[in-house]
Design goal:
The chain is built from 7 helices and no strands. By secondary structure, the protein is an all-alpha fold.
Length: 191
C-alpha cells in the first residue's frame, strides 16, 4: 500500500469521526438539547455584589478601588475634607461659569432639587426639613457665606461639612459650579 493511500484512509477516517461527532453535538431535532461544551461562559460562578467571598481579600466580593484609579468621566478631587482644605480650595479654585441664562437656570434647578430643602428657596436657611425639626443650616445671606470664596463653596458641595453631606455623587461637577453661581445671584441683595 502506498503512502498516498495510507494518507487518504487516515484523513477519511478522521473525517468520518469528525462528522459523527458533529452529528452528536449538533442534533438535527430542534426540540432536543445540544451538547454543551465550555459551559463556564454561560453558567459562570460570579458572586453577587456585597456578598461574602472566601477567595477575595477582606472576605467581600466588592473590593475598594486601587489607589490612584481615576473613575471614567471624573477627575480626582485634590482636596481632602475639613475647613483647612476648604479654605485652600477657595484660594486655588475658580468658577468656570459666568452669569449667563443657561448657567443660572440650571443652577436654580439643581438648587431647587438638592439645596432648597434645607436652605429654603431664598437661601435663608428655613427650608421644609427645618420646619419639621432638622437643625437649620447657616443662612446663605450670613456674613460667613458672603465672604466664602467660590472654590470653598464648591468644596463644601463636593466634600460636605458639619451636618451637610457631600453631593458629589448626586450632582455633577459642572452643576455644582452652576449652583455656586446661582447662590451668588441669590446673595446679591445681601451684599
Amino acid at each position: 500500500m502506498s503512502s498516498s493511500w495510507l494518507r487518504f484512509l487516515v484523513l477519511f477516517g478522521v473525517g468520518v469521526v469528525v462528522l459523527l461527532g458533529l452529528e452528536r453535538v449538533l442534533r438535527s431535532d430542534p426540540g432536543e438539547r445540544n451538547y454543551e461544551v465550555f459551559t463556564e461562559m454561560a453558567y459562570s460562578l460570579a458572586n453577587e455584589t456585597q456578598s461574602p467571598s472566601a477567595s477575595l481579600p477582606g472576605g467581600l466580593t466588592q473590593q475598594a478601588l486601587v489607589e490612584g484609579v481615576v473613575v471614567r468621566g471624573r477627575l480626582p478631587f485634590r482636596y481632602g475634607p475639613g475647613p483647612e482644605e476648604a479654605a485652600r480650595a477657595g484660594r486655588e479654585l475658580e468658577n468656570p461659569f459666568g452669569d449667563d441664562a443657561h448657567t443660572l437656570g440650571r443652577g436654580a434647578e439643581i438648587y431647587g432639587i438638592f439645596c432648597a430643602l434645607c436652605h429654603a428657596g431664598d437661601g435663608g436657611g428655613q427650608g421644609p426639613v427645618v420646619r419639621r425639626g432638622m437643625l437649620p443650616p447657616p443662612s446663605l445671606h450670613a456674613a460667613r457665606s458672603l465672604q466664602m470664596a467660590d472654590g470653598e463653596m464648591f468644596h463644601l458641595l463636593t466634600m460636605g461639612q458639619g451636618n451637610m453631606a457631600s453631593y458629589a455623587a448626586q450632582v455633577s461637577e459642572d452643576d455644582r459650579w452652576r449652583v455656586v453661581r446661582y447662590v451668588r445671584k441669590l446673595q446679591e441683595g445681601s451684599r
